[in-house]
Amino acid sequence: MKILITGANGMLAKSVQERLKGNELICTDVADLDITNQQAVLEFVSKCKPDYIVNCAAYTAVDKAEEAGEIVEKINGEGPGNLAKAAQENNCVLVHISTDYVFGGELDLEKDYKEEDPKAPVTAYGITKLHGEEKIKENTDKYYIFRTAWLYGEGNNFVRTMLKLAETRDEISVVADQHGSPTYAEDLANIIGEAIEKQIPYGVYHATNQGYTTWYDFTKAIFEYTGIICQVNPVSTEEYIEMMKITQAKRPKNSQLSKEKLLAQQITVPEWEDALKRYLIKEKEM
Ligand SMILES: NC(=O)c1ccc[n+]([C@@H]2O[C@H](COP(=O)([O-])OP(=O)(O)OC[C@H]3O[C@@H](n4cnc5c(N)ncnc54)[C@H](O)[C@@H]3O)[C@@H](O)[C@H]2O)c1
Protein backbone atom coordinates (compact mmCIF):
# COMPACT_ATOMS: atom_id res chain seq x y z
CA MET A 1 0.00 0.00 0.00
CA LYS A 2 1.11 3.54 -0.70
CA ILE A 3 0.71 5.81 2.33
CA LEU A 4 1.37 9.55 2.52
CA ILE A 5 2.26 10.76 6.02
CA THR A 6 2.02 14.50 6.67
CA GLY A 7 3.64 16.15 9.71
CA ALA A 8 6.13 13.27 9.57
CA ASN A 9 8.67 14.86 11.93
CA GLY A 10 6.21 14.93 14.83
CA MET A 11 5.94 12.63 17.84
CA LEU A 12 3.03 10.48 16.71
CA ALA A 13 4.25 10.39 13.12
CA LYS A 14 7.50 8.68 14.20
CA SER A 15 5.53 5.79 15.70
CA VAL A 16 3.20 5.70 12.70
CA GLN A 17 6.18 5.34 10.35
CA GLU A 18 7.57 2.49 12.42
CA ARG A 19 4.20 0.69 12.55
CA LEU A 20 3.50 1.08 8.81
CA LYS A 21 7.03 0.49 7.55
CA GLY A 22 6.06 -2.61 5.51
CA ASN A 23 4.24 -0.25 3.14
CA GLU A 24 5.47 2.29 0.62
CA LEU A 25 5.67 5.43 2.78
CA ILE A 26 5.91 8.97 1.51
CA CYS A 27 6.87 11.09 4.51
CA THR A 28 6.47 14.86 4.39
CA ASP A 29 6.61 17.70 6.88
CA VAL A 30 5.99 21.41 6.40
CA ALA A 31 9.20 21.96 4.38
CA ASP A 32 8.09 19.39 1.77
CA LEU A 33 4.33 19.77 1.87
CA ASP A 34 2.59 22.57 3.77
CA ILE A 35 -0.92 21.26 4.43
CA THR A 36 -2.26 24.85 4.54
CA ASN A 37 -1.43 25.29 0.84
CA GLN A 38 -4.51 23.91 -0.92
CA GLN A 39 -3.02 23.95 -4.41
CA ALA A 40 0.20 22.28 -3.30
CA VAL A 41 -1.75 19.58 -1.44
CA LEU A 42 -3.97 18.87 -4.46
CA GLU A 43 -0.98 18.66 -6.80
CA PHE A 44 1.08 16.52 -4.44
CA VAL A 45 -1.69 14.01 -3.80
CA SER A 46 -2.76 13.73 -7.42
CA LYS A 47 0.87 13.13 -8.38
CA CYS A 48 1.73 10.49 -5.79
CA LYS A 49 -1.75 8.86 -5.67
CA PRO A 50 -1.56 7.27 -2.22
CA ASP A 51 -4.08 4.71 -0.96
CA TYR A 52 -4.09 6.44 2.42
CA ILE A 53 -3.09 9.84 3.79
CA VAL A 54 -2.24 9.81 7.50
CA ASN A 55 -2.30 13.40 8.72
CA CYS A 56 -0.09 13.84 11.77
CA ALA A 57 0.46 17.56 11.08
CA ALA A 58 -1.06 20.01 13.54
CA TYR A 59 -0.48 23.15 15.57
CA THR A 60 -0.16 21.41 18.95
CA ALA A 61 1.09 24.13 21.32
CA VAL A 62 -2.15 24.54 23.28
CA ASP A 63 -1.13 27.63 25.27
CA LYS A 64 0.64 29.47 22.43
CA ALA A 65 -2.38 28.82 20.20
CA GLU A 66 -4.39 31.32 22.27
CA GLU A 67 -2.22 34.17 20.97
CA ALA A 68 -0.94 32.80 17.67
CA GLY A 69 -3.76 34.11 15.47
CA GLU A 70 -4.92 32.71 12.17
CA ILE A 71 -2.06 30.25 11.65
CA VAL A 72 -3.72 27.91 14.17
CA GLU A 73 -6.96 27.81 12.14
CA LYS A 74 -4.98 27.39 8.94
CA ILE A 75 -3.10 24.34 10.20
CA ASN A 76 -5.74 22.68 12.39
CA GLY A 77 -8.88 23.75 10.52
CA GLU A 78 -8.13 24.39 6.84
CA GLY A 79 -5.22 21.93 6.50
CA PRO A 80 -7.35 18.83 7.18
CA GLY A 81 -9.98 20.25 4.80
CA ASN A 82 -7.35 20.56 2.05
CA LEU A 83 -6.25 16.97 2.63
CA ALA A 84 -9.86 15.75 2.61
CA LYS A 85 -10.53 17.47 -0.73
CA ALA A 86 -7.40 15.94 -2.22
CA ALA A 87 -8.32 12.52 -0.79
CA GLN A 88 -11.82 12.72 -2.29
CA GLU A 89 -10.52 13.78 -5.72
CA ASN A 90 -7.96 11.00 -5.77
CA ASN A 91 -10.09 8.27 -4.21
CA CYS A 92 -7.90 7.72 -1.18
CA VAL A 93 -8.72 7.41 2.52
CA LEU A 94 -7.83 10.17 4.97
CA VAL A 95 -6.71 9.24 8.48
CA HIS A 96 -6.70 12.23 10.82
CA ILE A 97 -5.94 12.75 14.51
CA SER A 98 -8.14 14.92 16.70
CA THR A 99 -8.39 15.58 20.39
CA ASP A 100 -10.41 15.49 23.62
CA TYR A 101 -10.24 19.34 23.50
CA VAL A 102 -13.18 19.34 21.06
CA PHE A 103 -15.33 18.69 24.16
CA GLY A 104 -15.69 21.22 26.93
CA GLY A 105 -14.26 18.85 29.52
CA GLU A 106 -16.95 19.66 32.09
CA LEU A 107 -18.74 16.29 31.89
CA ASP A 108 -19.59 14.56 35.17
CA LEU A 109 -16.55 12.45 36.09
CA GLU A 110 -18.74 9.37 36.47
CA LYS A 111 -19.17 9.52 32.69
CA ASP A 112 -16.93 9.37 29.66
CA TYR A 113 -17.34 11.07 26.30
CA LYS A 114 -18.86 9.12 23.42
CA GLU A 115 -17.98 10.06 19.85
CA GLU A 116 -21.29 11.83 19.15
CA ASP A 117 -21.55 13.78 22.42
CA PRO A 118 -22.05 17.56 22.06
CA LYS A 119 -18.90 19.51 21.30
CA ALA A 120 -18.05 22.63 23.26
CA PRO A 121 -14.39 23.55 22.77
CA VAL A 122 -13.19 26.52 24.83
CA THR A 123 -9.61 26.96 23.59
CA ALA A 124 -8.20 28.10 20.25
CA TYR A 125 -6.63 24.65 19.90
CA GLY A 126 -9.92 22.83 20.58
CA ILE A 127 -12.01 25.14 18.40
CA THR A 128 -9.67 24.83 15.42
CA LYS A 129 -9.30 21.06 15.83
CA LEU A 130 -13.11 20.79 15.75
CA HIS A 131 -13.14 22.89 12.55
CA GLY A 132 -10.65 20.40 11.09
CA GLU A 133 -13.04 17.52 11.85
CA GLU A 134 -15.95 19.42 10.30
CA LYS A 135 -14.02 20.29 7.15
CA ILE A 136 -13.05 16.65 6.68
CA LYS A 137 -16.70 15.54 6.95
CA GLU A 138 -17.74 18.24 4.44
CA ASN A 139 -15.21 17.12 1.87
CA THR A 140 -14.98 13.34 1.94
CA ASP A 141 -16.82 10.24 3.16
CA LYS A 142 -13.73 8.06 3.33
CA TYR A 143 -12.09 9.19 6.53
CA TYR A 144 -11.02 8.01 9.96
CA ILE A 145 -10.82 10.62 12.69
CA PHE A 146 -9.10 9.26 15.80
CA ARG A 147 -9.56 11.49 18.83
CA THR A 148 -6.74 10.98 21.27
CA ALA A 149 -5.43 12.62 24.47
CA TRP A 150 -2.39 12.87 26.77
CA LEU A 151 -0.02 11.52 24.12
CA TYR A 152 3.56 10.55 24.91
CA GLY A 153 6.19 8.89 22.73
CA GLU A 154 9.47 9.71 21.06
CA GLY A 155 10.72 13.18 21.93
CA ASN A 156 9.84 15.54 24.75
CA ASN A 157 6.77 14.51 26.68
CA PHE A 158 5.22 14.47 30.15
CA VAL A 159 6.93 11.23 31.27
CA ARG A 160 10.37 12.53 30.36
CA THR A 161 9.64 15.83 32.08
CA MET A 162 8.72 14.05 35.33
CA LEU A 163 11.82 11.82 35.17
CA LYS A 164 13.99 14.88 34.58
CA LEU A 165 12.41 16.82 37.46
CA ALA A 166 12.99 13.88 39.82
CA GLU A 167 16.74 14.08 39.12
CA THR A 168 16.97 17.37 41.01
CA ARG A 169 13.98 17.39 43.35
CA ASP A 170 12.76 15.36 46.33
CA GLU A 171 9.15 16.37 45.82
CA ILE A 172 6.98 17.75 43.05
CA SER A 173 3.41 19.02 42.80
CA VAL A 174 1.20 17.58 40.09
CA VAL A 175 -2.35 18.40 39.04
CA ALA A 176 -4.84 15.91 40.47
CA ASP A 177 -8.16 17.24 39.17
CA GLN A 178 -7.81 16.54 35.44
CA HIS A 179 -8.94 13.05 34.44
CA GLY A 180 -8.03 11.15 31.30
CA SER A 181 -5.99 8.39 29.71
CA PRO A 182 -2.25 8.73 29.09
CA THR A 183 -1.72 7.37 25.58
CA TYR A 184 1.44 5.78 24.24
CA ALA A 185 2.08 6.94 20.66
CA GLU A 186 3.07 3.38 19.69
CA ASP A 187 -0.34 2.10 20.78
CA LEU A 188 -2.16 4.83 18.86
CA ALA A 189 -0.01 4.07 15.81
CA ASN A 190 -1.02 0.42 16.16
CA ILE A 191 -4.68 1.40 16.37
CA ILE A 192 -4.23 3.32 13.09
CA GLY A 193 -2.43 0.35 11.54
CA GLU A 194 -5.10 -2.15 12.61
CA ALA A 195 -7.92 0.14 11.45
CA ILE A 196 -6.35 0.33 8.00
CA GLU A 197 -5.59 -3.39 7.79
CA LYS A 198 -8.99 -4.51 9.09
CA GLN A 199 -10.76 -1.85 7.01
CA ILE A 200 -13.08 -0.94 9.86
CA PRO A 201 -16.05 1.30 8.97
CA TYR A 202 -15.14 4.93 8.26
CA GLY A 203 -15.97 7.52 10.90
CA VAL A 204 -14.89 9.07 14.18
CA TYR A 205 -13.32 6.90 16.89
CA HIS A 206 -12.00 7.65 20.34
CA ALA A 207 -8.48 6.28 20.52
CA THR A 208 -6.55 6.51 23.78
CA ASN A 209 -5.11 3.81 26.01
CA GLN A 210 -7.66 2.11 28.27
CA GLY A 211 -8.41 3.14 31.84
CA TYR A 212 -8.67 6.57 33.44
CA THR A 213 -6.33 8.35 35.83
CA THR A 214 -5.07 11.83 36.75
CA TRP A 215 -1.71 13.49 36.01
CA TYR A 216 -0.97 13.02 39.73
CA ASP A 217 -1.59 9.26 39.74
CA PHE A 218 0.16 8.93 36.38
CA THR A 219 3.26 10.58 37.88
CA LYS A 220 3.15 8.27 40.90
CA ALA A 221 3.05 5.29 38.51
CA ILE A 222 6.05 6.66 36.56
CA PHE A 223 8.11 6.78 39.77
CA GLU A 224 6.82 3.46 41.06
CA TYR A 225 7.71 1.61 37.85
CA THR A 226 11.19 3.16 37.69
CA GLY A 227 11.93 2.77 41.42
CA ILE A 228 12.48 6.53 41.77
CA ILE A 229 11.95 8.02 45.23
CA CYS A 230 10.29 11.40 44.81
CA GLN A 231 7.26 12.62 46.72
CA VAL A 232 4.33 13.62 44.54
CA ASN A 233 1.94 16.20 46.01
CA PRO A 234 -1.57 16.50 44.54
CA VAL A 235 -2.68 20.05 43.64
CA SER A 236 -5.70 21.51 41.87
CA THR A 237 -5.34 23.13 38.44
CA GLU A 238 -5.90 26.54 40.06
CA GLU A 239 -3.24 25.90 42.70
CA TYR A 240 -0.79 24.78 40.03
CA ILE A 241 -1.32 27.91 37.93
CA GLU A 242 -0.86 30.06 41.04
CA MET A 243 2.22 28.15 42.16
CA MET A 244 3.94 28.28 38.75
CA LYS A 245 2.85 31.89 38.08
CA ILE A 246 1.70 31.01 34.58
CA THR A 247 -1.25 31.73 32.36
CA GLN A 248 -2.70 28.71 30.64
CA ALA A 249 -5.35 27.86 28.11
CA LYS A 250 -8.22 26.16 29.95
CA ARG A 251 -7.57 22.47 30.50
CA PRO A 252 -10.45 19.96 30.35
CA LYS A 253 -11.27 18.47 33.76
CA ASN A 254 -12.77 15.44 32.08
CA SER A 255 -10.80 14.06 29.13
CA GLN A 256 -12.20 10.56 29.54
CA LEU A 257 -12.97 9.16 26.08
CA SER A 258 -15.02 5.96 25.75
CA LYS A 259 -13.35 3.32 23.56
CA GLU A 260 -16.49 1.19 23.15
CA LYS A 261 -16.80 1.95 19.43
CA LEU A 262 -13.17 1.03 18.71
CA LEU A 263 -13.32 -2.13 20.81
CA ALA A 264 -16.44 -3.24 18.96
CA GLN A 265 -14.19 -3.44 15.87
CA GLN A 266 -11.77 -5.81 17.65
CA ILE A 267 -9.01 -3.20 17.69
CA THR A 268 -6.27 -3.65 20.31
CA VAL A 269 -6.47 -1.00 23.04
CA PRO A 270 -3.97 -1.68 25.86
CA GLU A 271 -4.35 -0.38 29.43
CA TRP A 272 -2.40 2.81 30.19
CA GLU A 273 -0.36 1.13 32.97
CA ASP A 274 0.78 -1.60 30.58
CA ALA A 275 1.64 1.02 27.95
CA LEU A 276 3.66 3.06 30.44
CA LYS A 277 5.67 0.00 31.52
CA ARG A 278 6.52 -0.81 27.88
CA TYR A 279 7.50 2.81 27.21
CA LEU A 280 9.76 2.98 30.28
CA ILE A 281 11.53 -0.26 29.29
CA LYS A 282 12.13 1.14 25.82
CA GLU A 283 13.41 4.46 27.21
CA LYS A 284 15.84 2.59 29.48
CA GLU A 285 17.20 0.60 26.55
CA MET A 286 17.87 3.74 24.53
N1 LIG B 1 0.40 15.57 21.91
C1 LIG B 1 -0.77 15.34 22.51
O1 LIG B 1 -0.87 15.21 23.75
C2 LIG B 1 -2.03 15.23 21.68
C3 LIG B 1 -3.25 15.04 22.33
C4 LIG B 1 -4.41 14.92 21.56
C5 LIG B 1 -4.34 14.98 20.18
N2 LIG B 1 -3.14 15.20 19.58
C6 LIG B 1 -3.10 15.25 18.11
O2 LIG B 1 -2.26 14.23 17.63
C7 LIG B 1 -1.62 14.64 16.43
C8 LIG B 1 -0.13 14.42 16.53
O3 LIG B 1 0.35 15.18 17.61
P1 LIG B 1 1.92 15.24 17.97
O4 LIG B 1 2.02 15.55 19.41
O5 LIG B 1 2.62 14.05 17.40
O6 LIG B 1 2.33 16.55 17.15
P2 LIG B 1 3.75 17.25 17.00
O7 LIG B 1 3.59 18.66 17.44
O8 LIG B 1 4.82 16.43 17.61
O9 LIG B 1 3.97 17.22 15.42
C9 LIG B 1 3.23 17.99 14.54
C10 LIG B 1 3.99 18.05 13.23
O10 LIG B 1 3.22 18.82 12.31
C11 LIG B 1 4.12 19.56 11.52
N3 LIG B 1 3.42 20.69 10.91
C12 LIG B 1 3.03 21.85 11.51
N4 LIG B 1 2.46 22.67 10.61
C13 LIG B 1 2.48 22.02 9.43
C14 LIG B 1 2.04 22.33 8.12
N5 LIG B 1 1.48 23.50 7.85
N6 LIG B 1 2.21 21.42 7.14
C15 LIG B 1 2.80 20.23 7.39
N7 LIG B 1 3.25 19.87 8.61
C16 LIG B 1 3.09 20.76 9.61
C17 LIG B 1 5.20 20.00 12.50
O11 LIG B 1 6.39 20.39 11.82
C18 LIG B 1 5.38 18.73 13.33
O12 LIG B 1 6.38 17.89 12.79
C19 LIG B 1 -2.06 16.09 16.22
O13 LIG B 1 -3.14 16.11 15.33
C20 LIG B 1 -2.52 16.55 17.58
O14 LIG B 1 -3.48 17.57 17.50
C21 LIG B 1 -1.99 15.30 20.29
Note the main attributes of this structure:
286 residues, alpha/beta, Rossmann fold, binds nicotinamide-adenine-dinucleotide
Low-confidence stretches: none
Radius of gyration: 19 Å
Quick one: biggest sheet?
6 strands, parallel
Proportion of β residues? 15-25%
Number of domains: 1
H and E string: EHEHEHEHEEHEEEHEEHEHHH
The overall average pLDDT, rounded, is 98
How many strands appear in the DSSP assignment? Answer: 12
CATH fold descriptor: Rossmann fold
What small molecules are bound in this structure? nicotinamide-adenine-dinucleotide
Strand order of the largest sheet: 2-1-3-4-5-10
Give the termini separation.
Answer: 31 Å
Helix content: 40-55%
CATH class: Alpha Beta
Number of helices: 10
CATH architecture: 3-Layer(aba) Sandwich
In CATH terms, the superfamily is NAD(P)-binding Rossmann-like Domain
Shape: globular
Could you give a short description of this structure?
This protein is α/β, with parallel strands linked by helices and 286 residues long. It has 10 helices and 12 strands. It is 42% helix and 17% strand.
Walkthrough of the structure:
With 286 residues, this protein is α/β, with parallel strands linked by helices. It has a single domain (2-155, 181-212, 256-271), classed as Rossmann fold, CATH 3.40.50.720. It is built from 10 helices and 12 strands. The protein has a 6-stranded parallel beta sheet, with helices on both faces. The chain has a two-stranded parallel sheet with strand order 6-9. It is globular and about 55 Å long.
